[in-house]
Amino acid sequence: MHDDPSTTCREIRRNRGLKGYRYEQAHEKAASRKNTKPSTKLTDVLEATIIEKLNPIKKFAYTLTADNGKEFAYNQLVSLNLEADFYFANPYHSWERGLNEHTNGLIRQCFPKSQNLSEVKDADILRVGALLNNRPRKILDFETPLEAFERL
After folding, report:
1. How many CB atoms are located within 10 Å of the residue 72 CB?
2. Is 81 exposed, middle or buried (0-12, 13-18, 19+ CB in 10 A)?
3. Distance between alpha carbon 2 and the CA centroid of its chain, in Å?
4. Is 60 helix (H, G, I), strand (E, B) or coil?
5. Residue 147 pLDDT grade (very low, low, confident, very high; cuts 50, 70, 90)
6. For the segment 34-89, what is each residue's pLDDT rounded down to a tens digit?
7. pLDDT per residue over 99-109, tens digit each?
């Protein structure tokens, strides 16, 4: 069994208030969680999609940060395929995934929360993607993401 210290450390942090809680107990608990297979096919689809979409630019993808959903159960396979570190944000710490939360806010300007996203047409999704990819970003010295990728 591969010893994943990040999972163990997270387990210790979750249980730090318990008297006598030791590393071995945290490791056992973390290992038992890792061995449970998710019950949905969403995990397989998401894993394949992430690898497919990021593989062409994997030399620029150093880290991936996700929330703690079951759909990321196979994060180690993604990490190995992309040769990138995979991190999980702590629950209710949305600021640990700042760019993701900011992008969600921009998307919600076009598709309000009251709108059912399963009813959105593909053409509308592509339009919003084009808007976001052509929006200048301060972090890119006011270049658009599209311009930055073309330069690479």
Report:
1. 18
2. middle
3. 22
4. coil
5. very high
6. 444 444 567 778 888 889 989 988 888 888 888 888 888 888 888 999 999 988 88
7. 888 888 999 99
Please state the domain extents for the chain. Answer: 1-36, 38-88, 95-152
Which residues is 86 bridged to in the sheet? 64
Cβ-in-10-Å burial (0-12, 13-18, 19+) of 33 comes to exposed
SS3 66: strand
Strands (DSSP E) found in the chain: 63-66, 85-88
Nearest-angstrom CA–CA distance, 149 and 103: 18
Phi and psi for 105 in degrees, rounded to 5?
-65, -40
DSSP codes of every residue in 69-95: -GGGTTHHHHHHHHT-EEEEPPTT-GG
Residue 34 or residue 98, greater confidence: 98
Please give the single-letter amino acid code of residue 44.
D
